[in-house]
Structures are given as structure tokens and as C-alpha cells.
Amino acid sequence: MGASGLVRIGVAGWDYPDWSGLVYPHGAGRGFDRLGWLARFVDTVEINATFYRPCTAKVAATWVRRVAHARGFRFAAKAHRSWTHDAADTFDVAPTLEGLTPLREAGLLGALLVQFPQSFHRSEGAQERIGRILDRVEGWPVVLEFRHASWDDDFAAAWVRDRGAAWCVVDQPQIGRSTAAPTARVTSRLAYFRLHGRNAGNWFREDAGRDARYDYLYSEEELGPLADAAAAMAVRAAEVYVIQNNHFRGQAVVNALQMKQRLQGVRPVAPGSLAAAYPELAAIAAPEPGRLI
User: Fold this and answer.
1) What would the pLDDT profile of 221-248 be if each residue is shown by its tens digit?
2) What does the alpha-carbon distance between residue 43 and residue 111 come to, in Å, rounded to a whole number?
């Protein structure tokens, strides 16, 4: 499948205990570099930890070193939750930006994801809040993620385009009329596509843990239209990030490798233990033995 823009395909996060023996080799100890290993198989990793606590510049500098072997690799990173989830409009962007500066200076920060919750509906006040955020992060590669359907129209996208931000296309469980559909919108040279899975039964269930909510493996039939949407975005953007967030038991990596085969026309390399666990990879990926690094 051809595409004019550069398509980077990867996953959200890398520090999942349930990836041991699947994404990461059997017997990998505490000193094993999970990030460095993962960067051998995907083009990008979205940093989730910064949503909960801004990283320090010292930690970000170690991330730069750990992916030095991965040619063309880029990070995306989440803005701190205070920007989007706190009721008070008193958020401080400085800790997030200061912590991510080493990635930016190394040319490795492809996107800064500002993720709003399902409860964030479109309104004049909501747009004013976004405007204040964008005023404070001018010059950074900002991506706005909306999950509520009230944002899912061309007028909202035009406003985001006018503000110079990128639009995050979201694939998520379609529950009633409240969740936004994955419309392939592009509002800047940067485009972003997050695939959360379609686990409708657990998506809004209060007692569902993180693993249960994101326990989903896209089928080949489901991936086809999503890959088509990403390719359409690449025609209109210079760079597209496709991020799999259905992380439980390495399913995000499985689907990311399938997307690489579809969108980049390559036979991707897969961790050997993952290929053994998921027969879906047999036809499209070359398994690599679980050699520790």
C-alpha cells in the first residue's frame, strides 16, 4: 500500500509486566533494556509515564541513549494530566516541557499528545482552555486527542487547523452516540492515529482494570480499513504516527507489525517469543530469536 507521507508505526508504552516472555525474551532480568529491545521492532513509542508525572531531563537523556541504535526512531509523549483532566485551569506546562527537552534537542520528539477525557465535551469554554494550552506550547509538535463525539465534525477540525495543532484520529469502542468515530482528519503536516481496541464491554466499566480495558486484538479484517485510513492521512500529511494502545499481552505489538506490513510493504521482524504466541504473525513477519541485549 503506497503512501506519500512518512508513516511511523508503534505502540503506547513499554513497561508492561505481562509482556515478559512475549514481547521481551524469556529470562530477561532486571537489567534488561525493554525500551532498547522494543525499538528494534517498531518505529515509535508513545511515552505514557509523562501523563502521570513529568519526567526529568536526566531520565529523558537516558531514553535518547537507549534508542541510539534504532535508525529513524522517534518518540511521542503525553502531556501531564493536569493540562486536560483537572477542573482548575491552573496547570503548569513547564515541568513537562523541561523534562522532554533532551528528546526535542536530539530530534527524537515527534509529537506531544494532549489527551482529553471522554467527559471533555466541545464548548466555548473548552475551546478557550485549549487555546490557553496552545499559547503556552508554541513551537512544539502538539497533537490534540478528543474522545467525545461532540468534537467529531469538520468545524472543530478547521478550528484546530487554524490554531496550528495536529488532530488525533481515534479508534475506540463505538458506544451509543458519545464516542468519536475514527474519521481520517488531518489538520497539520503531522497526523496521528491512536488505536485503543474495541473492547466495548470493559471500556466504561468502573471496576475494569487497565489490562481488561485494553485487552483486544484487531483482526486482519478490522485492520484493513484502518490501514486504508492511515494511508489516506499520509497523502495529506508529511508524517503520520500510528500508535497501537491495545497493549495487553503484547497485542499492540502484534497489530503494529501487521500495520507495518500493510502500510510500509515490508516483512517486519518480530520477537521470536511473540511470533510463537501469535500465529497471526507467521505469514507476515520474520521471527527473531530471543537474544538478550
Assistant:
1) 999 999 999 999 999 999 999 999 999 9
2) 13
Which tops the pLDDT comparison, 203 or 134? 134
The set of cell numbers assigned to 124 is: 466555548
Long-range contacts of 220-229 (CB under 8 A, 24+ apart): 220/258, 220/280, 222/198, 223/255, 223/258, 223/259, 223/262, 224/262, 226/171, 226/182, 226/193, 226/195, 226/259, 227/1, 227/259, 227/262, 227/263, 228/1, 229/169, 229/182, 229/184, 229/193
Please give the Cα distance from 293 to 36 (Å, whole number).
8
- State the pTM of this model: 0.94
Backbone angles phi, psi at 135, to 5 degrees: -60, -30
DSSP E strands: which ranges in 99-212? 109-115, 142-145, 166-171, 190-195
